[in-house]
Specification:
The protein is an alpha/beta fold. The protein has one domain: NAD(P)-binding Rossmann-like Domain (Rossmann fold, 3-Layer(aba) Sandwich), CATH 3.40.50.720. The chain has 9 helices and 7 strands, in the order βαβαβαβααβαβαααβ. Strands 3-2-1-4-5-6-7 form a 7-stranded parallel sheet, with helices on both faces.
């Protein structure tokens, strides 16, 4: 028996149509997991599904805005109608802070927008997923995986990015709380903290030669991360292999934090 075989499992990935989310979705589907990609962009959803069509896992996509609780509830209902169950929820959708505006000039609107997506979005997705998982557990089928995408910004001080950092630190605390509360239902809860990864969110800074010159010497593996670097941890967390592993923050950064 392969403990990493995900055949018959179903996972939701918010923001799964690009970047780290797509890397997670592709790895899960390749391991037999059925995946439902929730994203706001219909074309990106369609493209992501097409890229995964050959895998053993079935792929479903839903238009979903995680800032809107009604949209999230509708996406969950549609996913349950399509697959009958949800075993894992990867709350990955998020926006970056840009790092351009000083804290004292931060607008209320910018602050609220950041929290609406990066923290409220996780709350909305995890709440509907946890409700389904705990109901299944009560019916004799205890299994659930909650995984949130956090950031190294939750550990380090990041100038002009305090609103982003605050949302990610809150996510770390949220997954620990849920790990304790939901353990009795067979549900684990963990966070993934990416380092500098190539994606649409980081494209601007990774194209800056000055930035690259300053950061690359601090990465022991001497490269930026790729979305595919998150496939292994996603499969592990989704599988039975991680049944006793909960309340953790997984740093995936090429050794950046150690050096």
């Amino acid at each position: 028996m392969n403990i990493f075989d995900l055949t018959g499992r179903v996972a939701v990935i918010t923001g799964g149509n690009g970047g780290i989310g797509l890397g997670i979705a592709q790895a899960l589907a390749a391991s037999g997991c059925n995946v439902s990609i929730w994203g706001r962009n219909a074309e990106k959803n369609k493209s992501a599904a097409a890229a995964m069509a050959a895998g053993p896992g079935k792929v479903d996509t839903r238009i979903c805005d995680v800032t809107d609780s009604v949209s999230v509830k509708q996406a969950m209902k549609a996913t349950l109608d399509a697959f009958g169950r949800v075993d894992g929820c990867f709350a990955n959708a998020g926006i970056g802070g840009g790092g351009r505006r000083p804290f004292i000039d931060r607008t209320e609107e910018e602050w609220r927008r950041m929290f609406a997506t990066n923290l409220d979005g996780v709350f909305h997705a995890f709440q509907v997923a946890a409700r389904h998982m705990t109901e299944r557990a009560a019916a004799g089928d205890p299994f659930g995986r909650l995984v949130a995408t956090s950031s190294l910004a939750s550990l380090f001080g990041t100038a002009r990015n305090e609103h982003y950092a605050a949302t990610k630190a809150a996510i770390n605390a949220l997954v620990r709380a849920l790990a304790v509360e939901l353990a009795r239902h067979g549900v684990t809860s963990n966070a993934i903290l990416p380092g500098w990864i190539r994606s649409d969110m980081t494209a601007r800074v990774l194209a800056d030669d000055k930035f690259v010159g300053a950061v690359m010497p601090r990465i022991p593996v001497r490269r930026f991360g790729e979305p595919s670097d998150f496939g292994g941890i996603a499969v592990y967390l989704m599988s039975k292999a991680s049944s006793y592993h909960t309340a953790d923050c997984f740093v995936i950064d090429g050794g950046y934090t150690a050096f």
